[in-house]
Amino acid sequence: MNNFQFQNPVKILFGEGKIAEIAHEIAAGSKVMMTYGGGSIKRNGIYDQVIAALSQCQVIEFGGIEANPDYDTLMRAISLGKSEEIDFILAVGGGSIIDGTKFIAAGINYDGDPWDFITGKAKVPTALPFGVVLTLPATGSEMNNGAVISRRATKEKYPFHNDNGFPTFSVLDPTAVYSLPHRQVANGLIDTFIHTTEQYLTTAGSPKVMDRFAEGVLRTLIEIAPRLTAEGDRKYADCADFMMAATMGLNGFLAMGVDEDWATHMIGHELTALHGLDHGVTLAIVWEGTMHIMRREKEAKLLQYAKEVWGITEGSADEIIDKAIDSTEHFFQSLGVKTRLSDYGIGEDTIATIRSRFEMRKWNLGEHGIVTPDKVEAILRCRL
Amino acid sequence: MNNFQFQNPVKILFGEGKIAEIAHEIAAGSKVMMTYGGGSIKRNGIYDQVIAALSQCQVIEFGGIEANPDYDTLMRAISLGKSEEIDFILAVGGGSIIDGTKFIAAGINYDGDPWDFITGKAKVPTALPFGVVLTLPATGSEMNNGAVISRRATKEKYPFHNDNGFPTFSVLDPTAVYSLPHRQVANGLIDTFIHTTEQYLTTAGSPKVMDRFAEGVLRTLIEIAPRLTAEGDRKYADCADFMMAATMGLNGFLAMGVDEDWATHMIGHELTALHGLDHGVTLAIVWEGTMHIMRREKEAKLLQYAKEVWGITEGSADEIIDKAIDSTEHFFQSLGVKTRLSDYGIGEDTIATIRSRFEMRKWNLGEHGIVTPDKVEAILRCRL
Description:
2 copies of one chain form a homodimer. With 384 residues, chain A is of the alpha/beta class. Chain A has 2 domains: 11-176, Rossmann fold; 181-381, Dehydroquinate synthase-like, alpha domain, CATH 1.20.1090.10. Chain A has 14 helices and 8 strands. The first copy, chain A, has helices spanning 40-43, 46-53, 71-84, 95-108, 115-119, 182-198, 208-229, 236-249, 263-275, 279-293, 299-310, 317-334, 348-361, 373-381, and strands at residues 4-14, 31-35, 58-62, 88-93, 130-134, 146-151, 156-161, 169-172. In chain A, a hairpin with a 4-residue loop joins β6 (146-151) and β7. The radius of gyration of chain A is 20 Å and the shape is globular. The two termini of chain A are 36 Å apart. β1 of chain A pairs antiparallel with β1 of chain B.
């Protein structure tokens, strides 16, 4: 078990009707920039609830933030926020809106180019306070201090973290899940699943409580996924379990004292940056490769995963691991996601590009840097 | 699933050697009151580590806080803290020291009688900031805003909570467990176990992630308890798992959206107040009674508990529940704790006293107030 530090100050307001409570969380008279995406919140009623809750504030809207929020879009929001001298930002959306808002909140208080935060040239000195109304369970960004920002002009996508990156509050109203398209639910389930395995399928010797928590999130996802992706109305309890799982999956609760991986995510980011694939889809493609290629290093945890999550105990170690990997891939496919590079017309060229990018950046990924560029190539090659 | 609000600002510093880091958490030059108990910290080296870490501060010591911290003792600490005009309190100990420190921190800033906080006559307006060095995993007080205070003069023991009751930081160094007496380890394991069941063995329909988290804490305790209570040196990993389980068991992580019980605790508090029994012992006595008498109301969760925690699935519902209750009681007994009132010379008189106290206070306990004074009497009667 590793030594660790943990602190998470985010206030969670969970449940149907909780959007109204943001009136108590933002000072009356504040000038609030409301950030959102393509406008689905105007169709499902969330926009109206938020506007009603902000009746004591002045609201400046910035809509149109895209999936995988783009540097150029966010720079326009920063410019607007500076000229309007806003006091607070309210992100209404999923992970892309929240991540973009973290970049905006940091950039508004910064005179230089906030891309410096992404490349590590500068640390975020201060950030504007911001809150969240979550509409899509997936990234956990509503309760952590991380974000992932894309730059389409250079086909790049990078994570960044900062001490000022925690929302002051996040509203989690499960009814937002009722109207989500199948594709977004599938992506959110996969994203949550793989956030959890990135913190779990690493080395033996993690705190036992963390192992059980991680297995609990994974088992929950496997249980609720068929109902959430079936035809017909979704039930409140399933939507609530989904939202809980997504938030708990990446708020630091599972990371205490454990080794973390994140190779699947970092490789997946490249597939999005180069080909525009949905984040969840990239994870479903890459995960099996990471587990297959790194199976010796991860053997103890893969066997534990097979037993505790899938109930697989029969056979040799390799047979058990194969069955667990297959069960997982079938789970992703059962959500309607294709899990091969060739399904998306991606081939050798892209593998070579990703390998050379990681070599250039001198990135060794995974727990203890065990996923070298050689391994990355092998991981992607077995996903052709 | 219930609506809920969650926020926990405590910074956790976990691992061997972390005591030295409190030097970064308390401003140099501060006047710090260090609270502790009977002096075990002087024998196991923790006192010396804390003093070394506080080399840039002025330290005022207040030792001698007893188990089940007493109002009179704590009032002396408040008096000392006021006259010395201290800036910060550092609790070095287990739940009793931390709980007592929460009362001191609230009382120092209050002109009236701080017993008003306990009876609900007054709310805590402000409190002095305080930190924790945990020496005994059990109560979870190191990461929550609750405390339990005793008043020996009137044989009373009550919990209180307040918004200013969170430590600013807590150091969790598992090596503190190495030298703990068997009795304290047994009590801490039982206390953590029953904190968890108070938040788990209630009604069906809790968030699935919460159910899995709770079962994970319980399974961890059952797994590590035999090693922690055996003869011979304790291993770091077991001590760390114990400390993690105790803190996660009562820091709000398991309580999100769930119905909570706490009848076993409230009845147990009376046994301590009237007879001086260890808190953990009172829980081990009362728990079986609560589960036996409330088995119909708790049936769905007791069956789930039997299956997920003990692997019991054969038999009728009542047979399964009986086996799960028996397994739990055997677990407590395996730690060397006797679980009958008669083992401690306690009989009908005490049951009558507790019943009449609860009637006078108009207390209906348990989830949704289902544990009436009638039920309390029945619970205790089957523990004679």
